[in-house]
């Protein structure tokens, strides 16, 4: 597929993404073989990653979703994370693995960690497809990480700018002209 004209650079092709997801799935399957795994996808950005990851995991597991939003229309976090939606599972019965598309400031993961700890998750870890290389006020430990990315705004593979570009099968850096008017 040709590069989308709004992208400045493709960071990860569909093929590279697929290969990394298989590795993550293998690692997770191994680590949780004696556990009771529940993947909790962070809507909406993690939907595409979650769909691929669950099929790369070879042990029985379940999944659920939670909605987190902090960005609105912009390309910088508002600093305030809103969680919404209902987890259907009783977290105390599960080894919870948060599945996120990208970690930036770390505030979303911080809010989710607080929430799921309060709900009594049996264990709690984070799997993020991407993580920005930047200083972070809130330290985030991703037990499973796909790739590090530069501190730029990236889209594709579920990640959006103003709800666009989620369907791109690669991850790329969005041209500044698209959001700096
Ligand atoms: P954090 O709370 O600042 O770590 O941001 C995490 C959330 O912000 C992610 O779940 C994304 O929805 C969004 N986000 C952060 N950086 C980007 C980006 O470069 N592209 C698209 N979404 C982003
Ligand atoms: Mg977004």
Number of domains: 1
- What count of helical segments does DSSP give? 4
Overall CATH class? Alpha Beta
Low-pLDDT ranges = none
Q: If classified by CATH, what would the architecture be?
A: 3-Layer(aba) Sandwich
Strand percentage, roughly? 25-35%
Bound molecules: inosinic acid, magnesium ion
Silhouette: globular
Number of strands: 9
Radius of gyration: 16 Å
The CATH topology assignment is Rossmann fold
Q: Specify the structural class.
A: alpha/beta
Widest β-sheet, arrangement of strands: 4-3-2-5-6-7
User: Mind describing the biggest β-sheet?
Assistant: 6 strands, mixed
The quaternary state of the protein chains shown equals single chain
Question: What is the first-to-last residue Cα distance?
Answer: 28 Å
Short summary of the structure?
The protein is of the alpha/beta class and 181 residues long. 24% of the residues lie in helices and 30% in strands. The longest helix is centred in the first third of the chain and has 18 residues.
């Amino acid at each position: 597929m040709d590069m989308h004209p709004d992208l400045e650079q493709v960071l990860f092709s569909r093929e590279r993404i697929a290969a990394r997801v298989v590795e993550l799935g293998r690692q997770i399957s191994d680590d949780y073989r004696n556990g009771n795994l529940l993947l909790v996808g962070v809507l909406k950005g993690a939907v595409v990653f979650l769909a691929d990851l669950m099929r790369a995991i070879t042990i029985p597991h379940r999944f659920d979703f939670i909605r987190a939003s902090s960005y609105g229309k912009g390309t910088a976090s508002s600093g305030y994370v809103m969680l919404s939606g209902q987890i259907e599972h009783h977290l105390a019965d599960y080894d919870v693995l948060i599945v996120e598309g990208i970690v930036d400031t770390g505030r979303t993961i911080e809010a989710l960690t607080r929430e799921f700890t309060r709900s009594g998750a049996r264990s709690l870890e984070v799997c993020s497809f991407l993580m920005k290389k930047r200083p972070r006020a809130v330290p985030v430990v991703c037990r499973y990480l796909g790739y590090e990315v530069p501190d730029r705004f990236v889209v594709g593979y579920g990640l959006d700018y103003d709800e666009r570009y989620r369907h791109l099968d690669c991850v790329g850096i969005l041209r500044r002209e698209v959001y700096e008017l």
